[in-house]
Amino acid sequence: MKMRPEKYLRYLFLPNLFELFGTQRTKEILSVNPTIVPRREEAQQVVITAYCYNKETIEERKDLLLNEALALRDSGKIVWINIDGLRKSDVEAIGNCFGIHPLLQEDILSVNQRAKMDEADDILFSLMNMLYYNEQKKSVDQEQISLVLGKNFVITFQEDLDRDVFTALRERLKLPTSKTRTKEVDYLYYTLLDTIVDHYFIVMDKLGDEIEDLEEEIIKSASKRTLAYINSLRKELIVLKRTIYPVREVISGLIKSENELLTEQNERYYKDVYDHIVQAIDLVDNYRDMLTGMQDLYLSNVNLKMNEVMKVMAIVTCVLAPATVIGGIFGMNFNVIPLSNHHWGFWIAVGAMVLIPLWMLLIFKRKGWF
After folding, report:
1. How many domains, the chain?
2. pTM of the prediction?
3. SS3 at position 31
4. Mind listing the pLDDT tens digit for each residue in 127-166?
5. Strand 47-53, strand 58-61: pairing
6. SS3 195
7. Minimal CA–CA distance to 111: which of 49, 162, 41?
8. What's the CA gap between 200 and 249, in Å, rounded?
């Protein structure tokens, strides 16, 4: 039978921590290069949903065709068109119909874009990233969303067909007493932005729970896996920081904007969103400080355990030193050795080997060395 040593040697090594928290995530986070124009894959399916409403009525239309969505421009009501799935031809058709500038159309089709806001041709444009917490991978996922505000219409472009944070907003919009129904179109725009920002806190709460569990693990039983997990959470905080920090500039730009699409009576609502995003930024900074402190705590625990091991080894070495010395003396090849021919010589030597270490342990104990 042919032996395969590699089959058994692999059990002698510790598990590769990079397989658990690999460098692939690092590549995903740091793979943003503005000098390279990324290619967006065309969506296999596009779902268009629209809400046409005023104070008295609301009409929900699902699974619209592109031509049907374009016809809503002249509905005479406030229109919210939501597009899940991006295709270049569809974005260009909607952009040309609703007067969205070609540069803004490029931003909508961009990949890994930084949050921004812009104004062009009576259009107010905001690009943001929605965040989701992936329970399986313990990571933060991003979805780019573009929001276009025009006269009596709002258009939202989303990448993912399966995930959405606007479900609660849709349900509120259907209520006759909904505040959104009685306000101008810029209030709907504010509500969309506020929903995205509020969802940031849900994701951060999930990360906060992970950080809390990690802190308990460090105190109770830290390991190399713990250090790898700290590094993994710090990567996710990079994602949060990259996503949330630029949003402050977006909301600030909307507050300072003198665009006629933004009414003065709704300005205070945008200021409220600004306060929320500032709180989110402070929370991200707090999480980063906590993880830095946890890493220091982990290293302190490792050093403390090493000191304990070294202390035990030093005590054992000191305790065995008398026996080693006595054994070495009586093991020398001299003709005349004290007690070598004595009847109790062996037992005297053994007794010295036992009593001297016990006396040393008593002294160590009184000095508080262990």
Report:
1. 2
2. 0.78
3. coil
4. 999 999 988 888 899 999 999 999 999 999 998 888 888 9
5. antiparallel
6. helix
7. 41
8. 16
